[in-house]
Amino acid sequence: MTHELELYYRNFRDLFRNEGWKQLITDLKENAVLINSVEVTKDSNDLYFRKGQLTIIANLLNLEAQIDISEKQAEEEEEVETN
Question: SS in 3 state form for 60-76?
Answer without folding.
Answer: HHCHHHHHHHHHHHHHH
